Every structure is written in structure tokens, then in C-alpha cells.
Amino acid sequence: MRMIMLVDFPVEPFNTLVRDGTAGAKIQKVLEDVKPEAVYFSERDGMRGAVLVVDVAEPSRIPALAEPFFLTFNATVKIRIAMTAEDIAKSGLDAMGSKYGA
Q: pTM of the prediction?
């Protein structure tokens, strides 16, 4: 199942990692382990952040995706289910509308 991970990096310890020159290598190591389909770095609510698209074969895989960010950066991680247009088409949404709609 495709999921979106929203990662917020607190100012510390990230500033310290940038200052000592290890932030980039640590990010690369985490990304090698997490293996996202895509990753985008951006500001998130005034902090450094990232948005990752990951494939989760089973729920037991979620800690292996989140823990590297928690333990390495003291980050906050939110995980959301993501659906493609094809997924929505297969969902039976139209039938639900006629069954539950007004």
C-alpha cells in the first residue's frame, strides 16, 4: 500500500548535525534504509521537513520506516494512506453514493 510520510525535523539536533557536517550523510543512510519511491525536502510549519512516498507491503513494516527518523533526528513522523486515481476508481465510491447519499 502506498503511503505518504510527513517528517518534521526539529531545530535540534538538526542544527548540530549541519554544523558538524554529518546531516547529509545521516539523511542518505536513512533514505537508503527506508527506500522511498520519492522524497521532497521543504519547509514544514517553520521547520525543516520532508515528504516521502513509500510502499508499505504490510503494517508491521511501518516502524522500520519511522524509527530511523525518530532515532536519528528526533523527528516527528506522520503517515497517511495514499490512493491513486485508479485506486479511487476501484473503491466503489459511486455505489456508496447511491447507497448512503440523500
A: 0.87
